[in-house]
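Review box. Two proteins, two foldings.
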Amino acid sequence: MSDASRTGGRRSGNPAPGLSTPDDSNTMNSIPTSLHETMKPRTRSRLPDTRAWLAAGQWLVTLLLCAFLIVPVIMSIMAGLTVNYFKGVSSGLTLRWLVEVWTQYHDSVFLSLDVAAATLLITLLTGVPAGYVLARSKTRVSRIIEEFLVLPIALPGLASALALLVVYGGFTRFRMSLWFIVVGHVVFTLPFMVRAVAAVCASSDLRTLEEGAASLGASFFQRFVTIVLPNARPGIVAGALAVVTLSIGEFNLTWMLHTPDTKTLPVGLADTYASLRIEIGSAYTILFFIMTMPLLVAMQWLGVDATGQRSATKKRAAAAAASSKQKPSSNSIDTP
C-alpha cells in the first residue's frame, strides 16, 4: 500500500483503529458554558427570613414558659431530698424526710387510692351510659342535661362542697363516712367521663353499626356490649385516667368534706406545709408526684384520644392509600 493511500485515509477523517479524536462540537459548546459559569455573580448568604425568626421566637417563649413551670417543681423536689433546705444541696442529700412522711401519712395514701377507685367505679357505671345517650340524642333537653352535668366544673370546689353539706350534712353517719367524700368526687369528675365518652360516640358511626346488628336480631344489651363499648374504648380510657388523676389531686372540695378520720392525700399535704418543716412538706410533694405521674405517662403511652380525631385521621389516610393503589397509573401507556 502506498504512502498516499495511508495519508489519504487519515485526511478523510477516519481515525485509525484504537485511536480517538476529541469532538470539536462538544469542545466548542463547553467553552461558552464555562465562561457563563465563571461570569455568573456570586450570591451572598441569605439571612433568615421572617418565618424563621418567628419560629425561633416561639421556641424561645415555649422554653422559657416550661422553665417557669418546671423549675419550681424541681426545687421543691430537691428541698425534700436535702438535709437542710436553707443550706441547700451543700448540706447533703437524704431520704429521711420521705421515710418520715410515709410513716406518718401512709394511711392518707391508701385512703386516697380507695376514694379514687370507688369514684372511678361509680363514674364508669353512670358516665358511660350517660355519654352514650347524650351522643345519640339530638334534642334540646339532652343539651340542657349536658350543661347541668358540666356545671360542677364551672363552680368552685368549695361551693359544691357547701351545697353537699347543706343537703346531706344532717345525716351524721353518712357525713362522717368516707362515702361522703366519694360522692363529692363523683360530682366533680363525672363530667370528664361523660364528655370523653360522648365525644367518641358522636365521632364514630355507631348508629349504622347498631342498625346492622339489630337487623341480625341482636338485643340492645348485646349491641351495647359488642358494639358500643369496643368503639367507645378510647373515650372510656381517657375518662378513667382523668377521673383517677383528678380524684387523687382534688383538695378544695375534699378539704370541706373531710373529717380527722377521712384525711386524703392533698389534705395531708396542706397540713405538712402548715405545721411541719418545709423539708417534710417537699417530701410529701415527692410522694404525691410519684403517685400522679404514672397516670399522666400512661395517658401518653397508651395514645389516648378522647375525641377520636387521630383514629379518624388514620382511617382516612389508610382509605386514601388503598384507593390510590387501586387506581391505574395515568402515566402507563398500553403498548401492543
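Next protein.
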Amino acid sequence: MSTQEAENVKQVKLDFDAECPSCSASIEFNPASGKLSCPYCGYESEIAIPEKEEEKVAQEMDFAMAEERGNFNWGVEKKTVICEACAAETIYDALQVADRCPYCGSNQVMEASAKNTLAPNGVCAFEITDKQAGENFQKWIRGRWFTPRAAKISAKPDSFKGVYLPYWTFDTKTSSRYSASYGKHRTVTDKDGKTQTVTDWYSTSGFYQEFIDDHLISATTRYDRNMMRKIEPFNLLNNKAYKPEYVAGFLSERYSIGLQDGWGQAKKEIHDHLHAQITSKIRWEKNADVVSSLRFSTTHDDITYKYLMLPIWLSSFRYKEKIFRFMVNGQTGQVGGNAPISPLRVTIAVILSLVTIAIIWYLFMSE
C-alpha cells in the first residue's frame, strides 16, 4: 500500500462519526442486523455499500510494492488518545486501534495506520452475537467428555469481549521442480513356502504447479496460537473493504508480526503443503505404495497479500479458583479453548480401552 493509500484509509477513519444522532450515545456495529445501532435508544443506520464492485471487498495488494514490511513490538508501547466527545485523555496499549472512552462511553476510532505501519484493507465482520457465542460455548463444554460434570454445570462465561485480530493472507503462483524415489510392494515366497513383502525402488522427477489462494497467517503474538487454530477456518471470501463502521464498538489490534515475517511463515507452511501434494501426485501417477527422498525447489510468482481484521469473541470461566480461557469465531461460532480435566474420567477411559483391546485380542486368538 502506498503512502497516499494509507493516508486515504486514515482519513476515512477520522471522518467516521460514531455519535448516535438521536440520543448522542455511541453507536456500534450490530452482528445480528449487520447495521450500526445504538444500544440505548434503538436507532439503526445502514452501512453504505460502495457502488463499484472492486470497492466492496478487500483487494489483493502487490507484495513487491509494499513499503513497510517489518515487525512491531507494539505490546510494550503506549499512546495517548483524546476523546473527541468529551476531550478526556486516555492511555492505551499501542496495539489497540478501536476502543470506547472510559469516561463518556463514546466509541474511539483510532487511526488504522501509524508511522511505519500498513493499514488494514479488509475486514470480516462479526456475524454472531455475544449471546450466540455463549450458547455455542455451553454446547462445546457439554461435549467435553473428560471435563467434570460439576464444571459443565457451573461454567458460566464472563462477559464477552469482541476483538478484531490482524491476519495476513497470501496468494502466490508456485512452480516446483522435484526428484524422488518411489517404491512398489510385491509379495514373494521363499523355498520354505514363507511369504514376505519386498519393495522395488525407482527414481522419478517432474514439475508441479499450484496456485495458493488466501493462505492465512496470524499477525499477532498476544494469543495462544494453538487455541486460535481451533477456531479456524474463517470464511475469508465473505470479507468487506475496510470501513471504520464495521469495527465500531469493538477492540481492534494492529499487527505485531510484520508482512515480511508473515510471508516467511507462509512460505514454510506452503512448502509443507506442496510436499504432501507432490507426494500424492507421484503415488497416483506411478501407482506407487511409498515415496521417499523427495526433494524440490519452488519459485513464487505474482505474490499478493491482504491485511484483514478477523472477528473473535474472547471470554473465560472460573472453576475451583482456576481461570480457563476460550475463544469463539465471530463468523462461524466455532469454539476453542481450555477446559478442566477429570483424572477419574481419564482413568476410566484408559481402563475401558485396555479391556476392549484385550477382548479383541482374545477373540482373534480364539479364531
